[in-house]
Amino acid sequence: MRLKRIVRLVCLLLAITVSATAQVTTSGMTGTILGPENSGLLGATIKATHTPSGTVYTAVASESGVFNIQGMRPGGPYTVEVTYVGLSPVTFSDVFLSLGENYVLNHKFTEDKNELANVVVTAAARGGNRFNREKTGAATNINATQLNQLPTISRSIGDFTRITPQA
Fold first, then answer.
1. CA nearest to 48, candidates 84, 73, 20
2. CB under 8 Å to 30, separation ≥6 — which residues?
3. With 133 labelled, which of 56, 109, 113, 158 sits at a CA distance of 20 to 30 A?
4. How far apart are CA 48 and CA 82, in angstroms?
């Protein structure tokens, strides 16, 4: 009688274990981005946008031009934009992903180059000088509200110095 209970329990545990295996709920995208010389484009950016929800997935190509995006929503449509500095961006529309499978997107850029415009960097001083040459060490700034909320028993300076890294 006891052996039957043990066998039933083992069978039940096996059934639960088999039914509790993980289910795949996402898709992915992979591929290779090549330049005009058939070499991988390190730093090419791949941006896949799930059109219905606006969710954006991005990846950057490796030295060999390979990219990989995992954890994407299955279905679609997706709009995929591939960009690289100095080359015209390419857009792929109506891309649909199958559940649990990687969509393969390979692209080779042609010689159509965009000329980069000049970039001018300017800076302007804001407000007063935040840094003083006479203040060269570490500091802790605390306002009156923080000081009043500081947990203390004796209201001594020792309670305040506990929160300063210099003490």
1. 73
2. 66, 67, 68, 69, 102, 103, 104, 105
3. 158
4. 9
